[in-house]
Amino acid sequence: MRLLATTLLLVGKDVRVELRAKELVYATVFFATVVILVFAFAFWGGERPPVDVIAGVLWVTVTLAGTVGISRAFEREREGDTLRAMMLSPAPRVAIYLSKLVAITILMTIVEIVAAALVSLLFQLDLTAGLPRLAALLLLGTLGFGAVAALFGASLGRARSRDVLLPLLTYPLVVPILIAGTRGTVALWRGDEAAVSDFWLRFLLVFDLIFLLLGFWMFEPVTRGES
Amino acid sequence: MRNVYLASMAVIAAVGLVGSPLLISGAPLEAQMGFIQKIFYFHVPSAWVMFLGAFLCAGGSIAYLFRGSERGDRLAVASAELTVLFGVCVLITGPIWARKAWGAWWQWDVRLTTSLLLWLVFVAYLFARRYGGPGARKLAAGLALFGAADVPLIYISVSIWRTIHPKTTVVKTLGAGMRAPFWASMLTITALFLLLLELRLALERARARLDEAHLAVEDHLE
Description:
The complex is a heterodimer of chains A (227) and B (222). In chain A, 84% of the residues lie in helices and 0% in strands. Chain A has eight helices and no strands. In chain A, helix 2 (23-43) runs antiparallel to helix 3 (51-79), helix 3 runs antiparallel to helix 7 (162-190) and helix 6 packs parallel to helix 8 (194-223).
């Protein structure tokens, strides 16, 4: 219970900081918009690209925007030296990890709503049919991605060349998430049987559980001495 | 003891590096693929030690992360470098074979993709250690551990996605003439790996001793 209360407190802190600065949301949403526009210019040649490509555009955009946002979030922590303050506080490390994960998920959910809407608009795709499933895929994908990014983002605190290292460390590890997310989305948009996207949903769920367990297990030792 | 081990690995590797090519050139040609199949004698042993290196690195990282073992950390960095090195061999020999056998340099096959990603994780490991600054050793250890745990997941996800690589069961179906050169290559490359690992560990140990001596002198001067 105390863990939950501490986590909520820490998430509340992140949300409050962001509501005042509004820096992360604006930067990440606009970054995602620009990336989708770049893809639209690159892939749009008269005919609509196949749904495989569009699903790829959505997931790649979310991944790229996610790293930019998370990088920036931890950079802000570093500038104010607040990550160190949090690590020094009696808050359990697991609560810090959990709060970062929740904050990342909130940020990325906002980005995903905008990104999905833009993809639908620019690639003339009707999203209404499989919307709940798409939302579930994106949410589970974000959780898995966040589980990895929160772990390494926090431990990159004082590292040099953080901006390059975060994607370098995260992307190879989240490939299973990307594959499952993209395949599930393609199945959805292609109008395959519901069983196909359900399969990938379950797949994501299992991956998330494993990633979260690894994250919980490793956050404490990896960030030890990071104060 | 360490010297005996080092010397025997050096001898096995040296004899093997001279002898295996003779065995390999004497081995019968594979009926369908012909000469290009011989790359298999390099490719499979390299892949084996690459995975061995990854496993050792993860083991060392666990010891370092959870028990603060400096030895574990030395083992981890030494085997990570060898994983990347032998990974390069795997990733070069694989496509050369694939060009001939499949008609394409690269296919998104499960083993290829998993090997490539495993290799990337360990490249990232070395990057993190070199450019990570303070705290990078812990971070890199976390990465090695996460990476090793992630590999089966990558394997599963890609194998559902697609697969065309020959199965590992081909080893059992090898023709009689191919078995000897294959196992000679396996032994040689493994001995070479262990030799390089021990040399690299010796370097790390020397470095640690130098650091200690440095600190001791500084303490003394103060």
